[in-house]
UniProtKB/TrEMBL annotation:
The gene is pheS. One of its GO terms (biological process) is phenylalanyl-tRNA aminoacylation. It comes from the Bacteria. The lineage of its organism: Bacteria, Bacillati, Bacillota, Bacilli, Bacillales. It is found in: Cytoplasm. PROSITE patterns: AA_TRNA_LIGASE_II. It comes from Cerasibacillus quisquiliarum. Pfam families: Phe_tRNA-synt_N, tRNA-synt_2d. This is Phenylalanine--tRNA ligase alpha subunit.
Length: 344
């Protein structure tokens, strides 16, 4: 049995020297050291040896196993190094070549528009306020002169969570909350940007989720002319100094009188075209003087305080300013669309 182990050792070492690939080396490992390998077969025959010979053969077998294992590991390290050297020779890297440019992101177009509008109104002394997107029926409707069963509620088809909670349909509740917090004791001059929700069919000009920015100014002797001046400045800063505005009578439950603001069409200069539907004007936002009932419910004396409010769709402002013809493009995460406005 000693002779057989020595023969296995010599044979394995010789074959290891001649091997030139990892697959053959692994096959040789299994042949000599595996569960059905040569050394294991020899050890299974130890039961036929005399009792005093078994320790000697066992020790010899372990030494040969370790020797073969060591040879295989050395050969494996050598083959791996040779493979690495070959790869380095074949894969030459020119370190003088310019690196690949890193793509730098930027704000989404809607984010950019919100920031631009915020900067404009902050410069006019307005504060930026925020409120919850899940709103109570009171602040979303009743505090804005829209009591239960008021027909104007049909204008804003809502996502109700319970009888008293819903996803806000506009950012006006932030105005009501702010006036309530001030308890009629000091003026309010604020804008409130945010996401709003309405039950609507998504198409090129409508979405069940969109963005609004609303403004509120309540103080002593606030007049409609103040609102017109603010909106005129907004239109010129947002759409160009040559833009003109007009105010048309309208109806909103929380303002009286109420108006809608149009801007002159940039494409046709008020001559009439397909963009402005041959009118020369494009609707932008709504507003008006805060209804005395709204002031009263918020704790302000309507005989002392007056105010104006206005609201605009951020998505619509972006569409008009940059010529976007489908509101869905804002939400589809198409990089070809989004990256156009990183430098906007």
């Amino acid at each position: 049995m000693k002779e057989k182990l020595e023969t296995i050792h010599k044979e394995a070492v010789a074959k290891i020297k001649d091997i030139n690939d990892m697959k053959s080396l692994q096959e040789l490992r299994v042949k000599y050291l595996g569960k059905k390998g040569s050394i294991t077969s020899v050890l299974r025959g130890m039961g036929k040896l005399a009792k005093e010979e078994r320790p000697i053969i066992g020790e010899m077998a372990n030494k040969i196993r370790q020797a073969i294992t060591s040879s295989i590991e050395e050969k494996q390290a050598k083959l791996e190094q040779e493979a690495m050297d070959k790869q380095l020779q074949e894969e030459v890297i020119d370190v003088t070549l310019p690196g690949r440019p890193i793509q730098v992101g930027g704000p989404h177009l809607l984010t950019h528009i919100v920031q631009e509008i915020e900067d404009l109104f902050i410069g006019m002394g307005f504060e930026v306020k925020e409120g919850p997107q899940v709103e109570t029926d009171y602040y979303n409707f009743e505090a804005l002169n829209l009591p239960q069963n008021h027909p104007a509620r049909d204008m804003q088809d809502s996502f109700y969570i319970t009888n008293e909670l819903l996803l806000r349909t506009h950012t006006s509740p932030v105005q009501a909350r702010t006036m309530n917090a001030y308890k009629g004791e000091k003026p309010v001059k604020m804008i409130c940007p945010g996401v709003v929700y309405r039950r609507d069919h998504d198409d090129a000009t409508h979405s069940h989720q969109f963005n609004q920015i609303e403004g509120l100014y309540v103080d002593k002797d606030v007049r409609m002319s103040d609102l017109k001046g603010i909106l005129n400045l907004f239109a010129k800063k947002m759409f160009g100094e040559d833009r003109e505005i007009r105010l048309r009578p309208s109806f909103f439950p929380f303002t009286e009188p109420s108006v809608e603001m149009d801007i002159s069409c940039k494409v046709c200069s008020k001559k009439g075209c397909s963009v402005c539907k041959q009118t020369g004007w494009i609707e932008v936002l709504g507003g008006g003087m805060v209804h005395p009932r709204v002031l009263e419910m918020a704790g302000y004396d309507p005989k002392v305080y007056t105010g104006f409010a206005f609201g605009m769709g951020t998505d619509r402002i972006a569409m008009l300013k940059y010529g976007v013809n489908d509101i869905r493009q804002f939400y589809m995460n198409d990089k070809r669309f989004v990256t156009q406005y990183h430098q906007a």
